[in-house]
């Protein structure tokens, strides 16, 4: 073997030396049991329903006839008599005119009645949901069982990082 080849072989062996002394490697363990970790979470929601209630409607009346009738009655009443009698006649005419004006104006008014009105009623109720937040995984590695919490179900085997350290005396 020539000198450059020996040098190259020596360099390769020197570079491979740390790899030969690696203290970590990957291996697989057989999954023995997977237990989901479940928690209960409250997700409140609103439930609504519509009810129909009876509502009393007031009569549809107008005040315009009373006002016009009162003014007209007061004017007519003030034409009768003299002095205090004229004032009393104007007051009586205003009252009578207001009553007559109201009756004339509201003779075709819609009477009050009962109607149905929709009323929406809502309330908040608890709604519990089950959520899986992890998995307790028990696996066998070289005849010993180990348990770990994982974020997912690993299936039939679990990938492991194995670390080897010398014992200190």
UniProtKB/TrEMBL annotation:
The keyword Membrane applies. It is found in: Membrane. It comes from Pseudoduganella aquatica. It comes from the Bacteria. The lineage of its organism: Bacteria, Pseudomonadati, Pseudomonadota, Betaproteobacteria, Burkholderiales. GO terms for cellular component: outer membrane. Keywords: Membrane, Signal. Residues 1-22 form the signal peptide. Its main location: membrane. InterPro entries: Bact_OM_lipoprot/Surf_antigen, Gly_zipper_2TM_dom. It holds the Pfam family Rick_17kDa_Anti. This is Glycine zipper 2TM domain-containing protein. Residues 64-104 form the Glycine zipper 2TM domain.
